[in-house]
From TrEMBL, chains A, B, C:
Annotated signal sequence range: none
Cross-referenced Pfam families: Gly_transporter
Cross-referenced PANTHER family: INNER MEMBRANE PROTEIN, UPF0126 INNER MEMBRANE PROTEIN YADS-RELATED
Name of the protein: Membrane protein
Cellular location(s): Cell membrane
Coiled coil (UniProt feature): none
Domain Glycine transporter: 8-81, 93-164
Organism per entry: Pseudovibrio japonicus
Membrane disposition: Multi-pass membrane protein
InterPro entries named in the record: Gly_transporter
Length: 212, 212, 212
């Protein structure tokens, strides 16, 4: 595993997810402890689920630096959330970066533990989306999960791209870069240009099926 | 443990729970990725909780066939959910079969690991109901959990019947069959005939208590 | 670790949290199985999360006495919930005792396993609040989590007080007593006197910032 890229992606994913948690706490006009709670929940939630499912020690019990990252982000958001909000849709873009980073990291950790590709892809998706889902459910906000936009699909695409590239080229730096880019492009397209996938349409409305 | 009955019950439980996830995705008019998500969440959610609580490797990280079962079911539901819906209350009946299968499986896995009967019964209940609870919470649907019908009680009855039969007769095939039947009959009675248990009624309305 | 104080705090935390679960089931006019479910969920939920995160066997799979405690409490609440309700705000006060007990226990268990202080504090908070959060989310009740009152902060204060006292004095009895008292006083102040922390106020409304 490319330890430097991994470590940067890992801190990046935790920090940007933590920032989205702080933005939600700010929108809800919470106290500082709630800022810290949402930063921790969103920042380390996805990676925690990944490690529980992979049956390995949870990453922040091994290296508590991740907790301090969330703590620093919660202080920063307490003072600067209003400035970040002024950027325009910061929550969704930071969330997109977190999804892209974690879709690669989740898959990479599973593969490094010897799990097969199906498990690796699922770990990428679970760790990329679980923190944000927790954040939205507990904050009572509508989750991107059930909306008509590309969200889970971006995490799937990132994890599949990483895994497939690593399997075919063996170049983990290239794989991490391509996977991250793929997820970010798809999720970014959903945010900026309303990209979406076709929805389920029961065939009652099609003539061919009506005649069955 | 009767490895064949176990394996059949296991795939059966995963597949029917996955199918209920696909039905919910279809009702919500979701895209295919959401079908896959709901099939996975509901299909493997209960068994995943069971394995996390029992501190053993999660079953689908050991055997990824379960993931492919969910994938196949999600494709099938994408094309045929409307036909399954035409059967009449398919979601509740498939859910009932899943509950019956998992109430036995959860208890059996705990007992096979040397856990005591109280833990085994609880594992049966947790693994039988957690996937469906997750499905309903995330889909924003009212869960059967809090409604005036037999739901948790069927899982308890199945797990207790399995455990008690195995303890007294030592015949795990008989125990699995009786436990599965007990849970399915009780849950089926709730679906078809509105069976329910008496609710809590505070005794303010009883004369004897009023005189205290 | 002071094994006796620990064990008392542990049973106390499980029993009072279980009682709050029973009170919620009674308010929802549920059947007995739902009483048992809510007692178990609230009673052992926090400690279960703690043990999963710490990667140790879940406490009630090692010692099933905790399950029987919840079972006994569920029977007691089935018969006496109306009498407990007559005390006035019993749910919130019992919840406060549970939070105080678990904020110490969660931190103590993490420290006894060799985890560092940041992890220990987080374990105190997670195990003190998770059972109650689960109870409220599943019951569809507004959680204390997002309300303008001291809730998470009490758990943080209890865990930090315990950890800091133990680190400086080495006296675990003193640490447990001080931590428990600190959390109970803060949470009690929130219940009885509406104590709260300052909320996030974006500086758009401050002159100094407006001129930036």
């Amino acid at each position: 595993m490319p330890s430097e890229i991994w470590q940067y992606l890992d801190f990046l994913g935790v920090a940007v997810f933590a920032a989205t948690g702080g933005l939600v706490a700010a929108r809800l006009r919470q106290d500082f402890i709630a800022f810290l709670f949402f930063c921790l929940l969103t920042g380390i939630g996805g990676g925690t689920l990944r490690d529980l499912l992979l049956n390995v020690p949870v990453f922040w019990t091994v290296n508590e630096t991740y907790l301090y990252v969330c703590f620093v982000v919660s202080i920063a958001m307490w003072f600067f959330a209003h400035k970040v909000e002024a950027w325009g849709r910061p929550l969704r873009w930071l969330d997109a970066i977190g999804i892209a980073a974690y879709s690669v990291m989740g898959a990479a950790k599973a593969l490094s533990l010897g799990d097969n590709v199906a498990v690796a892809v699922l770990m990428g998706v679970a760790s990329a989306t679980f923190g944000g889902i927790l954040r939205d459910v507990i904050a009572g906000q509508p989750s991107a999960l059930l909306q008509r936009e590309i969200y889970l699909a971006a995490a799937f695409a990132g994890a599949i791209t990483y895994t497939a590239t690593l399997m075919t080229t063996g170049d983990s730096n290239l794989a991490a870069g391509l996977g991250f880019a793929m997820a970010l492009i798809l999720r970014g397209g959903a945010i900026a240009r309303d990209w979406y996938l076709p929805s389920y349409a029961p065939p009652e409305t099609k003539n061919a099926d009506k005649l069955d």
